[in-house]
Amino acid sequence: MNGEERLVHVTAGSVTLEGNLSLPKRARGGVLFAHGSGSSRHSPRNRYVARPLNEANLATLLVDLLTTNEEAIDLETAHLRFDIGLLAERLVRATDWLTQYPDTESLRVGYFGASTGAAAALVAATECLKVVGAVVSRGGRPDLAGPALARVHAPTLLIVGGDDVSVIELNRKAFAQLRCEKRLAIVPGATHLFEEPGALDQVAQLAREWFETHLTLTEAPGGAARTQ
Description:
By secondary structure, this protein is α/β, with parallel strands linked by helices. 36% of the residues lie in helices and 27% in strands. It has a single domain, classed as Rossmann fold. Mean pLDDT is 89; it is low at 218-228.
């Protein structure tokens, strides 16, 4: 791990959310992870993707968008994971926290969303136009963002497994509605969870390149910062 990981508490309205913040010593950007259906900040797949981002000097915040009690309810009903409005609002609050936290307040923010978390990330991106510089979706349901798709300004990368046929079609429909800089990347031979050998490595590489391109800052001539 490049840097340190710390447990943080994010206030989101009347609830407090727990998150794991990994902060490289010279962070050049920050990525907020929005987990998907039935997952949490402990998702091994999201943590696997976060590691190379940290190695690229990108801070990562993996946060539970539902409280412990809400997660227990969702395990029974599978309802809250599809409440895109609620998840997006929680993500906006987490973004506010990240931009006010002393060690990350100067960083440009990206979203990495999985499953229904991808839709929440896209909706939240329309509410945080000045802060969010990129969105990446892994096996996501961007179609659930609905009319918000046409209002997304942040460059957006949709990653789908080549054997995840139904989700590919949903992503293609959402992709057609996006008006921002965009890319649809299909990982050959991968299913929905990218469990095949090497599949998640491809996801991590694609995400790292996207975030490095759109989030990190370099020093321009004369000392002014510019987007790389």
